[in-house]
Design brief:
CATH topology: TIM Barrel
Mean pLDDT: 96
Helix content: 40-55%
CATH class: Alpha Beta
Low-confidence stretches: none
Number of domains: 1
CATH superfamily: Alanine racemase
Radius of gyration: 17 Å
Number of strands: 8
Strand order of the largest sheet: 7-6-5-4-3-2-1-8
Distance between the termini: 18 Å
Structural class: alpha/beta
Number of helices: 9
Largest sheet: 8 strands, parallel
CATH architecture: Alpha-Beta Barrel
Shape: globular
Order of helices and strands: HEHEHEHEHEHEHEHEH
Strand content: 15-25%
Bound molecules: pyridoxal-5'-phosphate
């Protein structure tokens, strides 16, 4: 029999625990963001029942509808999940994203920062947690901030009082071995730590490489298909 959702989830938690242990880390310092993209809101409700509370999405249209459906489907007293936006975000979707999302993993360009600042100013009491996405390829036209430009960009992010800079994010293995990319991410994270002590978190690791990412300090894993199944 195929494992069901609860079994797949449990297996991933066990692998996270084992990888943490193997690397001398505590699994309590590693957050699991279950990427629920391409699945209906029912799956998110099931995951909530199973104790998960952080869900990742990469398309605004799908995410905004799903977040609303999940909010509707909560049982009495049940806490809503937090929604993490992990995909490339068009500037004209910023306003919508801020409506349901509390963490953005993919701040990848200055124009997006400007739009975030502008929209956040409309609700001065609101804040957004943000990771800066690194470009780990040799192609400067790909999304993300090149590691050599990270500090300069981070300094601009840190001037926006409604944004809390959590750290750096990367999608590994597009070109090289994932381990080389995770090493680059870790080095960038250490550099960022020298200008902002609180920006020490690392969003890295997906279904195929999260154990390696844990070895390179990942604190926020973004895992989809290994838990949710293919769709
Ligand atoms: C889809 C996606 C993931 C999850 O990928 P899986 O391989 O399904 O675990 C993680 N991060 C980003 C940015 C994604 O778009």
């Amino acid at each position: 029999m195929q494992p069901n959702l609860a079994e797949r989830l449990q297996a991933i938690h066990q692998r996270i625990d084992e990888a943490a242990k193997a690397n001398g880390r505590q699994s309590s310092e590693i957050e699991l963001v279950v990427v629920t993209k391409n699945h209906g809101f029912e799956l998110a409700l099931e995951l909530l029942e199973l104790g998960e509370s952080k869900f990742g999405e990469n398309r605004d249209q799908e995410a905004s509808a799903k977040a609303a459906q999940v909010a509707q489907g909560l049982s009495a007293g049940q806490h809503p999940p937090t929604w993490h936006f992990v995909g490339q975000l068009q500037s004209n979707k910023v306003k919508s994203m801020l409506g349901y999302s509390s963490v953005l993993h993919s701040l990848d360009r200055l124009s997006l920062l400007k739009e975030l600042e502008k929209q956040l100013l409309k609700t001065p009491e609101s804040t957004l947690d943000v990771f800066i996405e690194l470009n780990l390829t040799d192609d400067p036209n790909r999304g993300g901030i090149e590691p050599k430009n990270l500090i300069e960009f981070a300094q601009q992010v840190l001037t926006v009082s409604q944004i809390r800079l959590l750290g750096v994010m990367g999608v590994a293995g597009l070109g090289l071995e994932p381990a080389a990319d995770f090493a680059t991410i870790l080095k960038a994270s250490e550099q960022l730590g020298t200008i902002s002590e609180s920006s020490k978190y690392i969003s890295a690791g997906m279904s195929g490489d999260f154990e390696t990412a844990i070895g390179f300090g990942a604190t926020h894993l973004r895992i989809g298909t290994a838990i949710t199944g293919n769709r």
